[in-house]
Amino acid sequence: MLWKNKTFPSNLFEAKKILDIGCGRNKIEGSIGLDHADLPGVDIICNLNEALPIEDESFDIVIATQVLEHVENLITLVYEVHRVLKPGGLFVVHCPYFRSSWAWIDPTHIRAFTVNSLDYFCESTWIYSQNRFKDYGFTSIDIYLDRQEKNTFCRNILSNLCLKYSFKYENSVLSFLHPFQEISFILRK
Fold it and tell me: What is the pTM of this model?
């Protein structure tokens, strides 16, 4: 049986108040950029391992593109993002998939992500029910593999297998034969 591979939504950022954390020099147009360095386009300078200098429920979307793999205090940052999101807001994360060589090339990367890595923060997952860090979390999570790659028949089958049977797939030879490059998450508050 085949099931439909998820395609990353292209209109996600339209007419939304967006915080782009770890934006560096590549801030999303129309967003507020937050980074640890004073670079062109950065609006707020702060340490991502500490509390964010932003009021509660200020943003519709918080995006982190190739950022979470660098953050030492991931748990604090995820709950800070939860705090600054409006009800129903989205936390959009793009990071290297754990089998990708991109996950390990950069010496500043301190972690890599699997399909279930952010389940600890999402109330609708069994990992959250057994191992949560706080008694509140995001309400849902969507996961996308290689969002920018062309969908091929083989890629669709392997993506679907990985998303549906993540523990089996990620611990099998298939994950070595077809290592995805990027994993994306959309967590809804």
Answer: 0.91
